[in-house]
Amino acid sequence: MTDHAGHCGGGHGGHADHVAQYRRLFWWMLLLAIPTVAASGMFAMILGYTVPDVLAIRWVPPLLGTVMFVWGGRPFLTGAVSEIRSRAPGMMLLIGLAISVAFVSSWGASLGVLGHQLDFWWELALLIVIMLLGHWIEMRSLAQTSSALDSLAALLPDEAERVEGDSVETVSPAELRVGDVVVVRPGGSVPADGEIVDGAAAVDESMVTGESRPVTRSAGDRVVAGTVATDSGLRVRVTAVGDDTALAGIQRLVTEAQNSSSRAQRLADVAAGWLFWFALGSAVITAIAWGFVGQPDVAVIRVITVLVIACPHALGLAIPLVVSIATERAARGGVLVKDRLALESMRTVDAVLFDKTGTLTTGKPAVAAVAAAVGSDDDVLALAAAAEADSEHPLARAIVAEARRRDLAIPQASGFASSPAVGVSATVDGRAVRVGGPRMLAEAGLIELPESAAWHDDGAIVLHVVADDAVVGALKLTDEVRPESRQAVDALHKLGIRVVMITGDAAPVAESVATGLGIDRVFAGVRPEDKSAKVAELQSEGMKVAMVGDGVNDAPALAQADVGIAIGAGTDVAIASAGVILASSDPRSVLSVIELSKATYRKMKQNLWWAAGYNLISVPLAAGVLAPIGFVMPMSAGALLMSLSTVVVALNAQLLRRLDLRPAGPRRPDSTEGRPTRETATRNAISAN
After folding, report:
1. pLDDT class of 575 with cuts at 50, 70, 90
2. Which of 137, 322, 470, 514 is 20 to 30 A distant from 549 in Cα terms?
3. Mean pLDDT, rounded, of the chain
4. How far apart are CA 38 and CA 44, in angstroms?
């Protein structure tokens, strides 16, 4: 960023250090400025008091003014030199030029070489103090945008309790290694990413997902470093530590986003460069005009005022502060902006392409229907749940979960056995019970229930329940549609955005989901490697496309899209193909990205208009264009107005902090859970054999 390259030679890196530096420098310069201004004859004349004609007092402004120029002006002077060397003139060069001209002319007046009206010590002092104040405000604002990173780091506990045999020892989280088992007490933070091996708890995952409600986690579920077990204790086997944790990944993403350039930022940098030449040209014209009318002293005053007014401090602040605050707000809402260009483009998309599995659906099977040949549906479901109770497979979990949701009494089973691609068997209340797909029925010489034909047409997974060699019922399992998906589709339609779904599933499955959600267009039976071609097809139709997927199989499509959005990636934040990453699996978060994009663009535009428009109006006034009617802008007024412009831009950007990017409406406690795994795909072969 050229316009701020001179901030101690390091751009905007290390904002916290810059805050302390500019704060100290401002207060020291303010202390020196008070006697410098008070002892200035010109300032005394303006306020109507008399400075004692004492040699010691007369030399206070030159001596203290020189200290202020060398010490307080150093950041601006070094920045000016840096811009000259890089041949990228901007704000620092203008400030450096203004204070240098004021310094030289003031010494000339103090030594009697120039007229006393060119004694600018008090203006120089005020200019340095005001500009330091502006930079302090800017650095403080920019440092505040990093508070999300500080908050994330603070979430990690200072100590971890590692299990060693039969005892527990207290260690630093940095000492943990993959495979260690740690104890997380009720109310304690998880010290590293891991998998729960014992216990169940409501876990606060808001730092990763933006989800305000705790999520129930139990044995086999993964947890993230920094999340909090709110009500019960857990034992967690560590799977990632240090820089490999999701927390560290989120911090890297936010940092990269805040340091990345963007179209709007490049526009602001170019504008700052043009403003330098505009100011320089105006200064030359001002000098020539006032010299032509025979007032060279006025020419110097006007030239200095022009240079002060034209400093693009507000312009340099307009874009980076807005984007930095937007990035921080996004991180707090579970929206991780990896590429600012993607954020800027999101407001212009007219089609959102959703991958179905794991995005519009949960990516987990759920019982959609039960058919009973003998007894009631609940009897069949309870029998199947009893047989599947000891299985860890997602299909088994879905059956057991549905039985518990219906508050059914699940009988005790014994003799559990599992046969890959066939099914499971167990003894339940003295009956030999089997649950499986077509291969199990074929081996037993049994036939499917009539209802299963329509279920197969829908692309569902169909399992039959056999008791004592007789089919007693069947279960229909589907990839559960997220309840938030319909809200997301409806909201996108209200914005005039077309919603398209892409999936590798067969057409009947895709059409069933699309019809239920009101989706405009469907691409079914698409292989992962062909998804990018479908994105290109939409683009060839004149659409700006945002692709929403899981960031793994969808990587080429995410890269092809105008905006790539990886969803549900809270524990896999290093997805290189997406420009925006949604930590939660709630598809309504796409609307948050659109809202953020529009709000960010609106604030950028407001700040750019204010900063550039202010300069375009103020420079002619500073040059003395209204002098014929008796109005000339004092240099001090120019400095005050320039600082006011900076403050207005900073305050306008702060209004972005009112954004609440959390998806509205009811939240599902399990909204962050699971993507389909290879194990799931293998077991799903049961329904096809």
Report:
1. low
2. 322
3. 79
4. 7
Q: Which of 613, 593, 594 is nearest to 605 (CA)?
A: 613
For 146-190, how does the pLDDT look when each residue is reduced to its tens digit (9 = 90+)? 544 555 556 667 889 999 988 899 998 889 999 999 999 988 889
Which residue, among 339, 329, 353, has the nearest Cα to 492 in the 3D structure?
A: 353
pLDDT of 365 over the 90 cut: no
Look-up of token digits 């009720």: 186
Determine the Cα–Cα distance for residues 306 and 620; give it in Å rounded to an integer: 8
Q: Using N-to-C axis directions, what is the helix angle for 313-332 and 635-654, rounded to 10°? A: 10
Cα-Cα-Cα-Cα dihedral sign, residues 556, 561, 562, 567:
negative
Find the Cα–Cα–Cα–Cα dihedral 477, 483, 486, 489, rounded to 10°.
Answer: -100
Compute the Cα dihedral for 5, 10, 12, 17 and give only its sign.
Answer: negative
Question: Residue 666 above 70 pLDDT?
Answer: no
Contact criterion met (CB below 8 Å) for 460 and 478:
yes
User: What span, in angstroms and rounded, lies between the C-alpha atoms of 169 and 191?
Assistant: 14
d(CA 555, CA 337): 17
Q: Please name which of 193, 246, 214 lies closest in space to residue 670, comparing C-alpha atoms.
A: 214
The pTM for the full model equals 0.60
Q: Residue 39 in contact with residue 62, Cβ under 8 Å?
A: no
Contact present, 340 and 265 (Cβ < 8 Å): yes
Read off the pLDDT of each residue in 635-659 and give the average, rounded to a whole number: 75
How do residues 166-177 score in pLDDT, each as one tens digit?
A: 889 999 888 999
Is the Cβ–Cβ distance between 239 and 194 less than 8 Å? yes
**How many other C-beta atoms are found inside a 10 Å radius of the C-beta of residue 625?**
16
pLDDT in tens, 533-570: 899 999 999 999 999 887 545 667 777 888 888 876 43
**Catalytic amino acids?**
355
- Give how far Cα 45 sits from Cα of 42, 48, 212, 238, Å: 5, 5, 62, 74
Residue that is written with structure tokens 């006025």 in the block = 298
In one-letter notation, the amino acid at residue 553 is N
The contacts of residue 64 (CB under 8 Å, 6+ apart) are 32, 33, 35, 36, 125
Task: Summarize the confidence of residues 373-394 as an average pLDDT.
Answer: 89
Residue 40 pLDDT > 70 = yes
The 3-state DSSP composition of the chain as helix, strand, coil percent (nearest 5) reads 55, 15, 30
Which residue in 215, 212, 240 sits closest to 225, CA to CA?
Answer: 240
Query: Which pLDDT score, from 0 to 100, does residue 311 have?
Result: 61
State the pLDDT at residue 12.
Answer: 38
Query: Greater confidence, 331 or 476?
Result: 476
Structure letter (DSSP) for residue 494: H
Per DSSP, the three-state class of 501 is strand
Cα–Cα distances in angstroms (integers) from residue 300 to residues 123, 587, 623, in the given order? 14, 62, 10
Q: Give the pLDDT confidence score for residue 48 in this predicted structure.
A: 75
Rounded Cα distance between 253 and 270, Å, is 27
Interacting residues of 111 by C-beta distance below 8 A, sequence separation 6+ = none
The C-alpha atoms of residue 319 and residue 653 are separated, in whole angstroms, by 9
How far apart, in whole angstroms, are the C-alpha atoms of residue 553 and residue 62? Answer: 69
C-alpha dihedral sign at 215, 220, 226, 232? positive
Q: What is the rounded CA–CA span in Å between residue 303 and residue 310?
A: 11
The residues with which 625 forms a beta bridge, in sequence order, are none
Query: What distance in Å separates the CA atoms of residue 636 and residue 632, rounded to the nearest whole number?
Result: 12
Q: Determine the Cα–Cα distance for residues 335 and 628; give it in Å rounded to an integer.
A: 56
